[in-house]
Inverse folding.
């Protein structure tokens, strides 16, 4: 059974169809890269998965649990919505770190808020049955994540004192702190200059080996080619082509894909 | 009339100003948040009513509003033949002044809050949401501190204006500092009138130092 199954997602904004019948599935530990020109619906798709947008139609299933079904639209319940969101993590193009908190606090804020409620409701969080132990576990995990993204020395800095690349690495650690089933990246390097792009891509690459399931929307074709197990090329709200990188990038079939990739190759990748 | 004597009398008057100032801050700060919520409401009638209210309050003189709050309720009471409750005149005047000031300043504060809240990028809300925070957690843990930092300069400005506006309370015979100084001048003693400036300067100077201190406290991060 695939970890994530997306079926027939449709979404339109005020009469403009942004997503038309999107469907794909993803196995545990797989990395999916979504490429395509701006306005093709890649970001909207990620936002639908994270419930920042509500699709008009379609189904989203994670681990066999039906999270969204366009036919049985449930009322927006803050707590239910949150439970669904926690299956997904999202790293934004513009980082969106919380400026008033240190790097460490950025990573631990949401888990600590969650721990308080989980312990009250279910009696445990991260294997701890009281808040104090949960906080210890959360702090320990945050330190490990900082090590993973190579920013242990920046734990007590505020985001405004970090470079863009460092901020994005913190954002990745922050998303990982909640152990999402699927971690999504929305053009994670588009706001960075080329020098800083590499450090973020390296972190994402290192996550692949630690068995995270990821969806990466990106303009970095070379990176997608190297890291992704599968690539989706989107155009005009449709999946134009899908397959392993060697097929989609190495030997594209659709004329739209060919045209898109040729523009990248012009500059040499 | 000795200097000390005048100082004590003026200080007595300034206590009235300080009462209006304190009560106004105490109630207008939370009431302004409520009005701000109303003027950002998704429910069209609530938004329209709140914005009309803010327009009326900001569009008419505070002095007129003080008159209205002071004179209209007793007139209404007389019209309908209801006995108007019997506090003494000084208390009634202070109550009316405070109500007028609270409403007036809450309207101004609400617009400052609104601009502050609306200036927080949507990404902050979305980041909180995808991290599984509830709406109230996002507001109180993520947005509020950033709003406070942003609105601190315009709020300091408004609060310093309030210090000086309190002397408007004299129009309904509250014995505030300028009223007392004016009484001296009617008796031929003019310098106490100018001396009142020192009280206002001292008070607003203290506030300025306080706001600078808070601003510095909050400067550890940038938005």
């Amino acid at each position: 059974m695939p970890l994530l199954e997306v079926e027939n997602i449709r979404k339109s904004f005020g009469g403009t169809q942004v997503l038309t019948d999107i469907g794909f599935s993803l196995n545990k530990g797989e990395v999916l890269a979504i490429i395509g020109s701006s306005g093709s619906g890649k970001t909207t798709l990620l936002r639908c998965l994270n419930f920042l947008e509500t699709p008009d139609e379609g189904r989203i299933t994670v681990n066999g649990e039906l999270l969204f079904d366009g036919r049985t639209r449930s009322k927006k319940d803050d707590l239910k919505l949150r439970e669904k969101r926690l299956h997904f993590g999202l790293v934004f193009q513009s980082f969106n770190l919380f400026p008033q908190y240190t790097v460490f606090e950025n990573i631990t804020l949401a888990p600590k808020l969650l721990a308080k409620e989980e312990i009250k409701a279910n009696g445990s969080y991260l294997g701890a049955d009281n808040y104090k132990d949960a906080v210890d576990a959360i702090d320990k995990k945050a330190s490990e994540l900082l090590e993973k993204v190579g920013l242990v020395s920046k734990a007590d800095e505020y985001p405004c004192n970090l470079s863009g690349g460092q901020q994005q690495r913190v954002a990745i650690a922050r998303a990982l702190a909640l152990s999402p089933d699927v971690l999504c990246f929305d053009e994670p390097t588009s706001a960075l200059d080329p020098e800083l792009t590499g450090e973020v891509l390296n972190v994402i690459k290192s996550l692949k080996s630690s068995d995270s399931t990821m969806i990466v929307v990106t303009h970095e074709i070379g990176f997608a080619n190297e890291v992704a197990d599968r690539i989706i090329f989107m155009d005009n709200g449709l999946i134009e082509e899908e397959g392993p990188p060697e097929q989609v990038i190495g030997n594209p079939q659709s004329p739209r894909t060919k045209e898109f990739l040729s523009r990248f190759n012009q500059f040499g990748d | 009339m000795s200097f000390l004597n005048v100082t004590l009398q003026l200080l007595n008057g300034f206590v009235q100003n300080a009462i209006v100032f304190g009560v106004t801050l105490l109630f207008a700060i939370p009431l302004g948040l409520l009005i701000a919520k109303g003027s950002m409401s998704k429910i069209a009638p609530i938004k329209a009513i709140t914005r009309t209210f803010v327009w009326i309050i900001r569009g008419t003189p505070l002095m007129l509003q003080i008159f209205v709050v002071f004179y209209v309720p007793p007139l209404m009471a007389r019209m309908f033949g209801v006995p108007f409750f019997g506090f003494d005149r000084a208390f009634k005047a202070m109550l009316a002044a405070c109500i007028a000031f609270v409403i007036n300043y809450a309207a101004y504060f609400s617009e400052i809050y609104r601009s502050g809240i609306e200036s927080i990028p949507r990404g902050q809300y979305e980041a909180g949401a995808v991290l599984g925070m509830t709406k109230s957690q996002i507001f109180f843990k993520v947005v509020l501190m950033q709003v406070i930092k942003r609105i601190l300069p315009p709020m300091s400005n408004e609060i310093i204006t309030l210090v000086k506006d309190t002397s408007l309370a004299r129009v309904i015979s509250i014995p505030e500092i300028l009223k007392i100084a004016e009484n001296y001048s009617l008796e031929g003693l003019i310098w106490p009138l100018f001396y009142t400036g020192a009280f206002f300067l001292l008070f607003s100077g203290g506030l300025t130092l306080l706001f600078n201190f808070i601003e510095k406290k909050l400067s550890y991060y940038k938005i």
